[in-house]
User: Which sequence fits this backbone?
């Protein structure tokens, strides 16, 4: 594996970590949306953004040659 592939692999890993953090925060915000509807709305928006981050990671991962 060359250095560009290693960098892509690191980026994929970091994007997955970001996605996990975003989903955790989104879940918490959605829970507190029961107390403040705006939190729930933002939590759902954040969950959608987390899904996009996961898609980016998947696209980059496909570029990594075996």
Assistant:
């Amino acid at each position: 594996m060359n250095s560009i592939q290693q960098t892509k692999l690191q980026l994929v890993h970091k994007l997955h970590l970001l996605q996990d953090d975003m989903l955790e925060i989104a879940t918490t915000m959605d829970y507190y949306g029961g107390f403040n509807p705006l939190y729930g709305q933002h939590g759902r928006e954040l969950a959608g953004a987390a899904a996009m981050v996961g898609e980016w990671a998947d696209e980059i991962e496909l570029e990594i040659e075996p």
Observations:
- The radius of gyration is 15 Å.
- Residues 14 and 63 are 16 Å apart (CA to CA).
